[in-house]
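Need Putative heme-binding protein's 3D structure for a figure. Predict it.
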Amino acid sequence: MKNLKKKTFITFLYLVSIVFLPWW
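Structure prediction for Putative heme-binding protein:
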């Protein structure tokens, strides 16, 4: 369960960087 939460967090960071990267 803890590992799943970490993976979800990594995926969230990845999606956020994809969204925000074009603005830089």
